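Progress note, project year one: complex with iron/sulfur cluster.
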Amino acid sequence: MRVELIEKIEGEAKLEYKFKENKIDFVKIVFPHYRGIEEILRNRPVWDALAINPRVCGICGHAHLFATVRAIENLYQNAGIDVNITEKAKLIREITLFCEHIQNHLKWIYLVIVPIMKSIAKINIDQNSFLEIQKAIVNINRVLAIFSGQWPHSSYMVPGGVVCDPTNLDIMQARNFLKNALYIVEKRVFENMAFEEITVSELEKSRTDSGKIFRFLKENSLLSIGKANDRYLIFGEHSFTKRVKIIKTVSYPVKIKYVKEKSQKSGFAKNVTYKNNYYETGPLARMMLLKPNLIKQLHRVYKDGISTRIFARVLEILFLLKKVEAHLNSIELSQKSYNHIKTEIKEGFGESAVEAARGSLIHKIWIEKNRIKKYEIITPTQWNLSNGTLQNPATAQKAMIGLKNSKLAELVFRTFDVCSVCTTH
Amino acid sequence: MKSKIVWIQGVTCNGNSHSFLNYQNLDIFLKKVEFLYHPLLPSKYSLKELYEKRFDFDVLIVEGAIKKRYERGIVSLYTLIEKLSLKAKKIIAVGTCATFGGVFKSYDEKNIKGLIFDGEEKKGFFKELEEKVINIPGCPAHPEWLIYVLNMIEAKKKILLDDFLRPKEIYAYTVHSGCIRNEYFEWKVDAKSFGTKEGCLFYEQGCQAPYTHGSCNKILWNEVNSKTRVGMPCLGCTEPTFMKEEPFKTKTYMSIPANMPLGVPKRAYLTLTGVAKSFKIERLTKRLIDES
Ligand code: SF4
Ligand code: SF4
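Model obtained:
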């Protein structure tokens, strides 16, 4: 067995490889840390979760906040209390969530994917490109902060809406910051921002970093490595997603009650399955639902190999930038930001799902005597990086099995945008 | 020569690392320093090399709380800090976890602490390093706070510290100063609910800014905003008491806030409140921007 420590994936993970006839026969994924968020929440007043949960993760705190708010709102609904969220509050919640995705994906390309590609073969993207992209990240996070007060770690969503009350001036500033980000992304990542129209041949010719990444994969015969089970899941319901599983290209409805979490002997991450099967969640799943040109074309040839997975994430950046722009244009400022909810509820249960950058995030809350009795969090990385068996490998394992060396396996592993911090909340 | 920095993580959510990447002049800053290790940015060494290699460097940055048996690379976090702290000329605890234990402390009160402090007490795992340490609490710390400290160290300038080893230039203020709701605070006009521009969040929504040390309303977050400006109560994240129970409610005794603004005696506060409330300032009871 060979053990490799994988760093800079929002913490660390260990990959334990078994080789057979010079090929990876099996990989075990081990996450060594644990911080005890679910325990910290126990016995606390319900709303405390709004302040604690963004601290599950430094990079997707808004997704955790959103999931928390929805879980508490669902708790109220289950107790027969009306929850009315205005269209305005819904749009604002989505804007900040989508901004968080965008900045995450940009960091992923330049800090997670390009460096590992560099260690495999020559790629023509220089060290300083991140510093240019970082300006786009700064601007996107400004858009976020206009509504949420700060990023990271804000608790600005509360059951019933959002705490902010933006003005036209705020919207104008947000639009300007967004434009700055769009400009940089267009120049650096993709010159054609029309996400629906981009084709493989256009990608291949592109002078931007996306084109360079594509050509790198092609020249090194890596376009189709990293195939997993071709099964996808989406639980978060937003303006462009719905609750579905997609098998190959066909979607079916799903229910949270069939999701199972199970502890593992080694490491602190828990396995997650849907009706006992492993699924992939994240940008690839979401793009399989939206079916833009590029993803259809890539999937037809390379299935759920790394090229489809990588460009699903890249494409989602373009899609979300447009989405944020459209949301900013459609906010009706005269609507209320917040509707007070009568909160007298002593016992009950609530659950929620939200799409985080890396995929579906599920929160469940049980309360008793007005306090949290139990809180359960299932993170996207748990879906993608569960451990199955030799006979039934989980998503990322399946994608790594059969590869010739651990460097390639690490590239495949990183295409899932691993978050060790979330996984081991 | 560029100053050399090693940034390592303890028990953390990575929030301070990501906050750092929000620094608007990162490109300029990175011309002056070199990260021998950083949890996100490309850097010279791996975690393994960090422990095995001999090298000189200037500043050790620790993000996250300290737990003795917590794996970091090939050794425990404790062993790694022990080794690196010998070489470091200065050590910066960035974030409330590294400073006081933070949110994760409540998972394992006894075994999770800050570098020098364990909550309010000087009983951290590395209290013998006190001379070298500067604390920058905050959940997370603002990138500008950290860059200020690094610049001061580089320029060999003296940084004045308070009793919690926090730079006074950042933490001598309260978060309350600079909040755009200050007028409402002065005249004791409460925010009626969340989601409005009007009213102060101190009386009803749990704002801890009047007794929290920090400059969130002076050095704005992401250069554009702050929690309280947007309508969210300050959670008091720069203090050893973070995270308090019920952060969205103001704790009161006989309808008087349990915690007074910093340095204000209760009686004086009550007198002042009485006087302030006897004024009825029309302007402050209306919506800021209305149609008329
Ligand atoms: S909301 Fe908080 S920071 Fe703002 S004036 Fe009131 S007490 Fe001060
Ligand atoms: S406003 Fe309060 S809670 Fe927010 S970052 Fe500043 S000190 Fe921390």
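The mean pLDDT of chain B is 95.
The longest strand of chain B covers residues 3-9.
No further modelling is planned for this target in the current period.
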